Amino acid sequence: MNDVLQPHTRIALHNVTFTYAGATEAALRDVTLAAPAGQICAVIGRAGAGKSTLCALCAGFVPHFFRGRLTGSAIVDDVPIATHPIAELVRHVALVGSNAFSQISGARFTVYDEVAFGLENLGVPRPAMIERVEWALHALGIDHLRDRSPYALSGGQQQRMVIAAALAMNPPVLALDEPTSQLDPPAMIELADVLRSLSRQGMTILVAEHRLEWVADVAERVVALDHGAVLADGAPASVLTDPRLCEHGIGWPRPAQMAAQARAEGRWAPERPLPITVADLAAGLRAAAADQESMNGQGNTPHGLTVRPVAEMDEALSMTPVAEPVVTLDEVHFTYPTGVEALRGVSLTVRRGERIALVGRNGAGKSTLVRHLNGLLRPSRGRVLVDGVDTRTTTVARCARSVGVVFQDVRNQLFARTVRDEIRFGPRNLGFAPERVDALTEAAIDALDLHDVVSEHPYDLPPARRRLVAIAAVLAMDTALLVLDEPTAGLDNASIALLKRLIEQLTERQRSVLVVSHDLDFCYEALDRVVLMRDGRIAFDGRFAEIDQVQTAALDSDVGLPIALRLRYVCP
Asked: Out of 166, 281, 301, 478, which residue is the most buried by the measure of CB atoms under 10 Å away?
């Protein structure tokens, strides 16, 4: 914290309860929270726990935009929330929501002008405005995108842009709702550095986040919510290893999980605290290994843990005959009308029964490649074959029988009045027999654990469950290839476990799964083949179980490493 500033309470909530209009249960229940100037406070919890509502409350969107009944006292930067409009509160607090696309103004044509838009509305003098915009673009690593259209960016680039626009406002309080959901790992590290710097200057930062490993690295305080009430509140090392987090389905960061496993196996001292960061995990495992001479010289990884890539656990995989391809890309190039060359000679084959991770930095071309898999985009040069048929000679509807895609922004895929109708639409639209439609619908509902919401409107659900509905709707189409673009974004640990089981079940039936994700740990634990994209090209393509040190270094330099690989190669 900046010594020049006198610390005082920036967020002061006392016995706050809020119930949305038309809801029967409160979204926040008797919440009391006092956050001083310069504190980074992370809010964690399962989907629907109240994290987004808490962020919206601190910015005044609750109750001025999202209507409902608010009781208790809510004061932010000495301003009572209930009695001041959003137009006034915006000078005190900036909110970045979980969906970047919905926060683009639509009134500006370049990234630079979009970041400056809020400052213009506040009447900030031009010299100060230029200084703030330049700083924000540089801080979020998007200087090179300043002249691009906000709508010509990848999801991750858009997320960085809207965060930059909020930071340029230089608010006393910053509320971030799932700020890392579409960021690649290097961008997540950069964001953490920026937030630490701002907190030292006195900015209070409230972060609602599911990525517990990132929370452990950046937060000074963690508040866990469960059904709208505070479950735990305190230092990260204490809260993130609180047994109640597991009891309530929130879970622990992976380092704590891995150390708990090692403790159960006698390889982590009972008196040693569970770690929440990879560095502390590595240090503890080294200390344990040093005490066990039997582990020396055996060629084991330093941690000796059983977290392994899927392919390494499947001994029969290497003996399986080569399966037929579902999709083949042959020297595919694609250039957008704006002149942006997104794909530069991509060749890739997806065979039946494969589970593939497509990784790369924001803007590497991953989402553009995905749109070629079902014919939504056609190559500028090269060809794409879906079940042997060139996408240039067929329709998207024909490709949809073989390739189902769930995009990053699932709102564009949901339109039915109930969850059940949403899931039924796909197989019924493909002309399946009624009994098959019913069977596929029920199987998808069961696989994504949606029985309790089948009669609900999809948009009445929390964003995380909405994502599961979109996955179920595409799953019910029973395609040979299921493509999931950032499927774990905003999901809690329980929902991520559902996805892992689903992927395993699909590949057992010789269905293929391709996952575009920045969640490298999920990829390592649920998938076996990894394809790294860089600048519109494939940098390497191999299996996690066979990745060598050169490939590991390439992966690390681009997007970082899963924790298990980091322990193996970076923590000798």
From this structure: 281
Identity of residue 504:
E
Helix (H, G, I), strand (E, B) or coil at 346: strand
Each residue's pLDDT tens digit, 426-466: 999 999 999 999 999 999 999 999 999 999 999 888 888 99
Q: What's the rounded Cα separation, in Å, for the pair 467 and 515?
A: 14
User: Which has the closest alpha carbon to 384: 319, 325, 310, 436?
Assistant: 325
| Total Cβ atoms within 10 A of residue 65 | 10
**Residue 146 CA from chain centroid, whole number:** 24
- Residue 10: the pLDDT is 96
DSSP state, residue 409: -
What tokens appear for 179 in the block?
A: 């700020």
CA distance 316 to 330: 29
- Cβ(475)–Cβ(482) below 8 Å: yes
Cα(56)–Cα(88) distance, rounded to whole angstroms?
Answer: 15
Residue that has been written with the tokens 């494939």 in this structure? 538
- pLDDT score at 302: 45
**What are the angstrom distances between the C-alpha of 345 and each of 164, 333, 381, 394?**
33, 5, 8, 22
Residue with tokens 């969640």: 519
Question: For 16-64, what is each residue's pLDDT tens digit?
Answer: 999 999 899 999 999 999 999 999 999 999 988 999 999 999 999 999 9
pTM of the model: 0.87
Give 436: exposed, middle or buried? Use CB within 10 Å, 0-12, 13-18, 19+: middle
